[in-house]
């Protein structure tokens, strides 16, 4: 039986800096709440709002997700 999340998103991996591993941070939920969290994290100095992906559709109707990729030294 095929898993419901399998192959749902096939995002191209961005070119990663040499010797670094990508770490993905996801925020999922209703669009207004997701945007609010992204902006709150910006105000806290965690990440610029523009560093996050645009809102992507979620498997849950009416919800979206945004992704931030950071790189960790391997």
TrEMBL record:
Taxonomic path: Bacteria, Bacillati, Cyanobacteriota, Cyanophyceae, Oculatellales
Protein name: Uncharacterized protein
Highest taxon of source: Bacteria
């Amino acid at each position: 039986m095929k898993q419901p999340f399998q192959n749902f998103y096939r995002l191209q991996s961005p070119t990663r800096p040499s010797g670094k591993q990508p770490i993905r941070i996801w925020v999922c939920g209703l669009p207004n709440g997701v945007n609010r969290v992204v902006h709150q994290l910006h105000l806290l100095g965690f990440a610029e709002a523009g560093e996050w992906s645009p809102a992507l559709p979620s498997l849950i109707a009416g919800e979206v997700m945004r992704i931030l990729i950071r790189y960790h030294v391997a």
